[in-house]
Amino acid sequence: MRKSVSVYTLVVTTPPHQNNTATVIEFAESILTAGHQINGIFFYQDGVLNASTLTSIPNDEFQAPAAFVKLLNDHQVALHLCITAGEKRGLTDQDGVININPAFTVSGLGEMVELTSTADKVIQL
Question: 75-109: per-residue pLDDT in tens?
Fold first, then answer.
């Protein structure tokens, strides 16, 4: 019998220092290990803080932003940042001030709609 492959969209609403953010990364790795696909991760609300180049996490704590970039590099999982939520939290790529990690694609809610409409399952944390 052939194994069914599901396509997931993940929506991250938690900042890098919360345990739920680490759970998203563990879940993403489990999905990929099981042979499923992730069509993208959309960062919304406080989740956009995972894209900030100004975030400083102590070395002995989980490095969520680096783990998301590793997902991108190892598995080509697109990282989409809601720019409206980002701007509300001080993130910008305008006027010579760039504090958004270049691994993240600046997007809008339309991108989230596109991702979720092409996914079999949507998980929000």
Answer: 999 999 999 999 999 999 887 789 999 999 999 99
CA-nearest of 112, 39, 24 to 76 is: 39
Could you give all domains of the chain from N- to C-terminal order, each with its CATH number? 7-124 (3.40.1260.10)
Of 11, 49, 82, 115, the catalytic one is: 82
Q: DSSP E strands: which ranges in the chain?
A: 7-12, 37-43, 79-82, 105-107, 121-124
82 is catalytic: yes
49 conformational bin, left if phi > 0, alpha if psi -120 to 50, beta if neither: alpha
* pTM reported for the whole predicted model: 0.93
Three-state DSSP class for residue 110: helix
